[in-house]
Amino acid sequence: DIKKDVEYGQYNGLPRQDQAMQKWRENRFGQFIHWGLYAIPGGIWEGKTYPYASEFLRGSAKIATSTWDSLIYQFDIPKYNPKEWAAIAKNMGVKYVTITTKHHEGFCLWPSEYTDFDIENTPYKKDLLREFVDAYTAVGIDVNFYYSVLDWHHPDWRYDIKSDEDRAAFERLKQFTKNQLVELVTRYPEVKGLWFDGTWDNSWKKSGQFSYELEKLLKNKRPGLIVNSRMRADEHGSRHFDSNGILMGDYESGYERRLPNPTDKEVLTRDWECCMTIPENQWGYHKDWSISHVKSPLELIEMLVQCTSQNGNFLLNFGPMGNGDIRPEEREVAKEIGEWMKVNSEAIYGCGPADLEKQDWGYYTYNEKNGKVYMTVFNNPVLGKYKIRLPKSHTLKKASLITKQVESLEIKQISPTDYFIIPDKINNKKPFVIILEIVDRA
Ligand code: JFZ
Predict the structure, then answer these.
(1) Domain range 19-347, its CATH number among 3.30.2350.10, 3.30.70.100, 3.40.190.10, 3.20.20.80
(2) 256 CB less than 6 Å from ligand 1?
């Protein structure tokens, strides 16, 4: 039911079935990286700890722009070792990475022709983004760029357009944005996707036609390029979804530090990605993680499995330190998730929803290519048996452990549709995966 005329909405039709998009979908697990000048103070200013997101410290501590911007002279990163970063990511099991090329503060991690507020003017001087792209690409991880349109440094940024002066300024900002994005996809042809942010202000919402044409331009320059729904507003100012409810961009990126309800069926109809922080709400490096709950590797693994079971990707954030190191807590999370992935990733990569009734023990995932259903168990029933319900047309033939610890598990059919899997020799200190062979009786 189309209610409104929308000329500047969805650009290429959905869901995309080209190779690049299929690869994006099969990847399932990604690493987000928030790195910028905010990593230097790390949430603490003049001895005071600010518990709000560290990348917003500039606002929380009411720091003057010139003071904040002079942090650039301290961006010396002796511990920056992109090959080590890439190795950590690879061991964790991610297939893609999304790095902040420019966050709201406006500082650019690459030497941009269009601003001096960039890596060239730090003590480091070199193009750290080039080194980053090379290191991750070398280990087979797809690289994506996060880019904030909102820019606290740029004199032409406007939150709204209320005067001719605002209009002229924002026109320049739009040109700057376009220049920088073309620069990024040209300098780093390896880039697979762009992750837009800072697009919620009225100024951008009033630029629907511009963002549509920008998407078109970037996709023409880089065929296969994947953009998130956060990039766009239509000409009526609707964001993510146009005025008729049609998703803009190639996948939905509204699941921010939250997940859909596990029985939500609507999300199965589209591509989406959840982005998640390890602490409650810190994207950039914060020195003091005692200020909020820090998620355990098990909590994060459960989120990854849930996303996969509902057709979504999981993008887990890291906030490297001001000296370029990765904090010990994040190294530990990466290591533990990696250990789990080494055994169980078959239930993640290339998998999606299984279209079976959700049970309390955990989540089903399904691999279309090999026809296998995976059940990842997070909750052990007091009953000691795992219940499965299939459509009447299907039969459960076999259940085995992904670890091949035992060849097959005992199955008991208890009704035309329901089964118990009766476990034996399951070492379940960690979530574990049972592979199901289900046959269609027809
Ligand atoms: C934005 C940024 O402000 C933040 O620093 C971080 O980069 C994050 C990934 O994106 O924050 C948001 C954006 C959208 C919502 C909430 C926070 N949202 O839609 O609820």
Answers:
(1) 3.20.20.80
(2) yes
